[in-house]
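Students often ask what a 'structure token' actually looks like in practice. Rather than answer in the abstract, let us consider Bifunctional diguanylate cyclase/phosphodiesterase, a protein of 736 residues. Its sequence is given first.
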Amino acid sequence: MQETAPDDDLLELLDEPEHADSEHRQHDRPWRILIVDDDGDVHKATELAMQGLTVEGQPLVFLHASSAAQARQLLASEDDLAVVLLDVVMESEDAGLQLVRHIRDELRLNAVRIVLRTGQPGYAPEIETVQAYDINDYKTKSELTRTRLYTVLTAAVRSYRQICALEANRRGLEMIVESSTSLSRMRGLSRFAEGVVTQLCALLGILPEGLVCAQFNGDTGDEVRIVAAAGQYSGLIDRPLALVKIPAVRDRLERCLREQQSFYDDGTVLYFGLGQGRAMAALVDVGRQLDELEQQLLRAFCSNIAVGFENVLLYSQLLDQAYNDPLLRLPNRNRFVELLDQNLKDPTGVTLALIDIDDFSDINDAFGQHFGDQVLQAVVQRMSEMLGLSTAMARVGADTFGVLGEHAKVCPETVSAVFAEPFVVSGERLQLSATTGLVRLGESTAVGSELLLDAQIALKRAKQHQRGSSQYFSAAMGSDARERFKLLKGLRTGFEESQLFVVYQPQVDLGTGHAIGAEALLRWRTVDGRFIPPDQFIPLAEQSGLIIPIGEFVMRTACAQLRRMQGLGHADFRMAVNVSMAQFRHPGFIDMLARSLRDGGVAGQSIELEITESMAMEDAELVRRVLAEIKQLGFSVAIDDFGTGFSSLSQLRQLQVDRLKIDRAFVQEAQTSTAGSTIAQMVVNLGRGLGLTVIAEGIETEAQRDYLVGLGCHEGQGWLFARPMPAADLEGWMKR
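Now compare that with the structural description of the same chain:
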């Protein structure tokens, strides 16, 4: 029997496991080995020595470079190298070592294994070289016999494969983490499932191919969809499992979900239980029977990954709630803004409408919220029928719908038709109406939420015109609304930067001409010196709620000035301050008045609060209650602009006011108009009859004063006596 060389025995020992495992390996992906050496014989000898041998069941393919420079060019286009066999001395003494630095530091190829081969060890001492460079083996060319070279390559390839598996595992984990913050439900679930694919394949040492994940939707009871697939099954993504034409795939996944367990026979199928009737299943064609250790690893993997799937599904539900209305099963405002942005890519012929159901709160108050929900569902059903499938709908408010579609469908006529016939809800016949604001996308430069703002502006204009009407948005409307917004923004800034201040217009006894007090009036002067009229900014302050801090500022300033006037010897001086309905409704209004009196060091009897007649009639019960508390603090009360509203004598008595103030319009018309004269006379007579003091504003001439004195009017203010003035000027005026 012929004796076998020791090297040959070692070669057979190394090669034997590969044959046992080769039937499970793919032979179409060889290991790629780069030889870098300036000696052509080395290239030929290496390739000849490895001819016919396999590593890990795969053949070897050799690439060649005769210099470090040539290797750099080749590496620029090759990123799938397993091993580099590298000579040290080539065009320079350290050309090979510099190539190592290039591979590791510049190309960032950390997985490729580098075996340094040298015929001149003196140029690169082994210990120092291993310490200084990231290489994986160091051999002299003389010791690399056929068997030793095979041993080195096998160890390097195995190391390379393990590093690649770890890297694939890391990428899978990164995808799973990334999916937890994904903004789209299907995208999030799909990316998470892709991460599971990559990680599973890394665990099993196979390429990420032939794996399918399916979601079981517990809400519908029988819906199973493919949410991730790779390799030959990639075309099945997002398809219902029942429609999959591959029986082996469909049957195994259905069995896994039905029996709620993993199977390792006839292909590997993994079960992920998620609770509440939901589950995930993953099928992977491993190509072999898994051993017990691998099955244990996969069981642990499934248990851990199930938590991740649960989190992704929970996140998906949160996204549903963030972008969909659960009651009406319509997109909500957030999703509708996205739809608007998508349609702006081709806005021609598209109209946006905001449809607001008139007086819907009355329905909720009369019949209850459950009935109101049914009404909304009935409205949505009829709108869907009449607007068609090509029209997008969303719920953008409690009783407001956004509609997006072609001009012919989304128009006032269609909206009117929707609400023309009564709605029958729980046996009740309801005749509803809706007010609509519309925007033609092709005529607007706005985007997304700005378009909704334009539609809201048109809707508000329609409501001001007539309930149940429709109004298209125009550039003029937008300009007005944006000017108001700009003014409000400037008002906020102006208040914070002390651009608002108080002036005082004296009030006199018409009979004697003596000053009895002053009205505190708010003014706004911008940084560039412009004065903004009060009738422009005060309504904005009331609508925005800014009147609350501004009103407190006026009250405290007026109290401080009143204290100063009393200190100057004007003991009976009275300060009048205007208040608004927004202040009356604020729960802290009375406390604010009490603080202002206390901090200012004045008594309530020296201050008069002025409210308008229309305000007094708007919510008579509230006004009566608040006025009663005001009276307890000692304040007197005047009704401003009297004669412009519709108050009754009985209401006037219940309010327990102290003064009636004749509006300036009636003062101006008193001598030139019969109507003006009549109203002025009526107010004076009413006031005197109720025992109230009557004061007129806007007196500009002696003739007007004489006329009012003749009517019996007690007090007055106006330019005839003094214009509104700063505090210092008021003090000087009082001296004179």
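One point worth highlighting: The first helix runs from residue 6 to 21. Ask yourself how you might have guessed this from the sequence alone, and why that guess would often be unreliable.
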